[in-house]
Design goal:
single chain, alpha/beta, six-stranded mixed beta sheet, 11 helices, flat
Length: 363
């Protein structure tokens, strides 16, 4: 089969707290099924089943992954049919624009045993409170890590040739866009390139760029202008009428990590840790911002200071990630309670109902 699956995040656990870009990926859809229900009620499994059904029918699909659970999905989109099935529970609550006309609520709570859950009321409340506390701790530590990262950036910013940076940025933008333009209103999709998960930083770079012929790998240091380049490129591409996939940093969403221009069959991304990749195709190219823009010998001159910064940064990230892992463990406990209360035959019936409604859209 030639159909493909792309994977990405739309929400993240970041240094700015929980960051939600869900709405951007839902734009242009004619039908959205919004799933409601507690943890363990089968939302992710339902989403996966719907995706598998339509991939097997030969359709391209997009899987939206959950950054708080490495094995869970937050949504599936079938672009050709302009339909999506998404988890609409907190923290990514989705506000319908045209209830009934576009969005349909799907209540998975019809499949649980409320009498059974009443016995666990206090336990549920207590666990949810503990989970909230874990996320508060994680976000606080990621915020601390970002402050340390700012120290890291300052060293390189103080040693950067800004005139040369502007010139290099223009050269790269001109190389990518050339004289091309399209007379149409562009579609701009904002997503996260990676996510801070209970298992550490994860991303889908290889999957997202697998069908792109030309890839540019940006190498450099914090503060060497990688995000600024990407922001300028995204803006210029939009002005030229190109659809743009804008991938924000899963740690600091105010920064960009990747831009994909599928109409030009090209992508460019920050290829430094924690999403460090190296060229694997003949057409891949490296753009080294450090060697091009930063004063020679900066790494060596500030080696001791940089060693301290990197150490403190890694500790803060590691501690923050440990709280995400603890939240995931508590969430698993919560799921067990709900799973024991569920009638999954009813969930299977709901899958069939949703699938039939999607099938009607093809007729």
């Amino acid at each position: 089969m030639n159909n493909k699956i792309i994977n990405y995040y739309t929400c993240g656990n970041t240094a700015k707290g929980f960051y939600d870009l869900f709405e951007s990926s839902l734009q242009g859809l004619d039908k959205i099924f919004i799933l409601k229900g507690g943890p363990g009620t089968g939302k992710s499994s339902l989403i996966k089943k719907i995706g598998e059904i339509w991939v097997n029918k030969g359709y391209d699909i997009e899987f939206i992954h959950c950054s708080s659970d490495n094995n869970s999905l937050d949504g599936v989109i079938i672009p050709k049919l302009k339909v999506g099935v998404v988890d609409g529970t907190a923290p990514h609550v989705i506000e319908p624009k045209a209830p009934g006309a576009i969005e349909d609520y799907v209540n998975l709570g019809v499949a649980w045993n409320s009498e059974y859950l009443k016995d666990y009321k206090n336990t549920i409340i207590d666990i949810k409170q503990l989970i909230n506390e874990c996320y508060k701790q994680a976000y606080s530590l990621f915020e601390k890590a970002l402050t340390i990262h700012d120290e890291w950036e300052k060293i390189y910013i103080a040693n950067m040739d800004f005139a040369k940076a502007d010139k290099l940025t223009e050269e790269i933008i001109n190389t990518l866009l050339q004289n091309h333009s399209l007379i149409k209103s562009p579609i701009i999709k904002h997503r996260l390139m990676g996510g801070s998960t209970p298992k550490g930083a994860r991303d889908f770079v290889e999957n997202l760029t697998s069908s792109v012929s030309k890839r540019y790998f940006i190498k450099g240091r914090p503060g060497s202008g990688k995000s600024t380049l990407l922001k300028k490129l995204a803006k210029r591409a939009e002005e030229r009428g190109f659809d743009v996939e804008v991938y924000h940093c899963g740690f600091d969403p105010n920064s960009l990590d990747m831009v994909i221009l599928r109409e030009l069959d090209v992508c460019i991304f920050d290829s430094t840790a924690p999403h460090e990749y190296f060229p694997s195709r003949d057409s891949d190219e490296i753009i080294d911002m450090y060697s091009e823009l930063i004063t020679q010998g900066t790494d060596e001159k500030y080696s001791e200071e940089l060693k301290s910064i990197v150490s403190r940064y890694k500790v803060a990230i590691s501690e923050g990630t440990s709280f995400l892992a603890k939240a995931k463990s508590l969430h698993d406990d919560l799921e067990k309670i709900y799973i024991s209360s569920m009638n999954f035959d009813k969930i299977n019936e709901i899958v069939k109902e949703i699938n039939c409604k999607i099938d009607d859209l093809t007729k």
